[in-house]
Automatic annotation (TrEMBL):
This is TetR/AcrR family transcriptional regulator. It comes from Stutzerimonas nitrititolerans. Gene3D superfamilies: Tetracycline Repressor, domain 2. InterPro entries: Homeodomain-like_sf, HTH-type_TetR-like_transc_reg, HTH_TetR, TetR. Residues 28-47 bind DNA. SUPFAM superfamilies: Homeodomain-like. It comes from the Bacteria. Residues 5-65 form the HTH tetR-type domain. PROSITE patterns: HTH_TETR_2. Keywords: DNA-binding. PANTHER family: HTH-TYPE TRANSCRIPTIONAL REGULATOR RUTR, HTH-TYPE TRANSCRIPTIONAL REGULATOR UIDR.
Length: 219
């Protein structure tokens, strides 16, 4: 028999669902309590305010990204690893999509979260450069150190601004955010690398591009 989730975990899961579906700004602690059928006082026993809930959800997202943005032990990277990294990014972005949709507001509202996010961003950029160097050493990519740094930064810019981009090009009523639309953002990151792919790896990378491509209607 599966144990019933504790109230704290239920609050976090419900908050994530509501933030993702309605947007963090539209959801209050009273909404979360009502959704769970608990009193606001019960919620406040576990979390004093909404910022604490957001901080804990971010910590989970942060740990998830840190876990997969690393080199595999004791073996060279392959093109298939590139697919694994990109799919892991897609899964994390979808699971915590409210963070990407409301990021600017969230960081402006919480100085501690903004500081943590800055550390996370720097760490992620360092990890991305390490992974790109791994692909160079494995003969999948051909890049200089300066190109590796630039590519890591450009990939980060795309990933962290993709949701906002979608909201600005969809006309008066942009399409609802979906996994397919996020997948197109992952495709854009891979597309940045095309000029650096080694000839031997190009057929496999091309197949990966075709797998990730999603048509994007602009306007």
């Amino acid at each position: 028999m599966t144990a019933k989730p504790k109230t704290r975990e239920r609050i976090l899961q419900a908050s994530l669902e509501l933030f993702n579906s309605q947007g963090e700004r539209s959801v209050t602690t009273n909404h979360i309590a009502a959704h769970l059928g608990i009193s606001p006082g019960n919620l406040y026993y576990h979390f004093r305010n909404k910022q604490m809930i957001i901080a804990e959800l971010f910590a989970t997202y942060e740990a998830q990204v840190d876990d997969f943005l690393r080199l595999p032990p004791a073996r060279p990277l392959t093109v298939e690893d590139k697919a694994l990294y990109l799919e892991a990014l897609l899964a994390a972005m979808w699971q915590f999509r409210f963070l990407h949709r409301d990021l600017e507001h969230l960081l402006a509202a919480d100085a501690q979260l903004a500081e943590r996010y800055g550390q996370f961003a720097r760490r992620s950029l360092d990890s991305a450069q390490t992974i790109y160097r791994g692909f160079v050493e494995a003969g999948v990519l051909r890049m200089s150190p300066a190109q590796i740094e630039a590519l890591a930064i450009n990939a980060w810019i795309i990933l962290t601004s993709w949701v906002q981009f979608l909201g600005t090009v969809g006309g008066a009523a942009p399409a609802p955010l979906s996994q397919d639309l996020l997948r197109r953002g992952i495709f854009q990151v891979l597309a940045l690398e095309q000029g650096f792919v080694a000839p031997a790896a190009r057929p496999e990378v091309q197949r990966l591009l075709e797998r990730l491509h999603v048509p994007l209607a602009l306007g």
